[in-house]
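Risk register update: the risk of archive-format incompatibility is retired. Evidence:
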Amino acid sequence: MRIDIWADVVCPWCYIGKRRLEGALADFDQAHPDAEVETVWHSFELDPSAPRKPTESVVEMLGRKYGGGDDAGRQMVAQVEAVAAEEGLVFRHAESRHVNTFDAHRLLQLALAEGGPEVQGRLEERLLATYFVETGNLADHEVLARLGTEVGLDPERVAAVLAGKDYSDAVEADIDRARQYGANGVPFFVIDAKYGVSGAQSREVFGQVLERAWADRPVGDSAE
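Archived output:
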């Protein structure tokens, strides 16, 4: 069974949805120990216009975008942080900067191409944790290079990709594909190219969709 996930690495609901899906997969694994599940992450930019060099915090950006100033932005962030805490995630999102994620997505494409879904999954987790827990700047090439090397990618290859434009087309293709699915926001999950799940649904909802996809698999396909 394959799960395709469209996400942005500065999207708090993507991190929350990731944790909820992981919980559902743990339940699914217990019920179906012989099942093989592959997860592939796909690129999506919530704000392509975000600066590569941060000029404001997320709190300031939200207050400016939706009105109400920093107090309103801080309240919005606090509400999401409370939900994240329920999933065991200790966000410091109020300290995060509003940054562009295109290069981070190019790095995720490299991880998939040269390390496969497992390495890409490790990088996705590190990018999310770096942004939401460690308040790191995901537009900073030094930060991205460190994270890429940390999950096992070749340092020279990482540096070369970040210095150029490699995988830009792959990022754009992912975004176009999301639009074809009708996904205007993330997270967006597609299970076995058949079942779409929009948003950070509950562990129970994810579990129901996984079971349905498993029940609908082709006859004789017992381990995929």
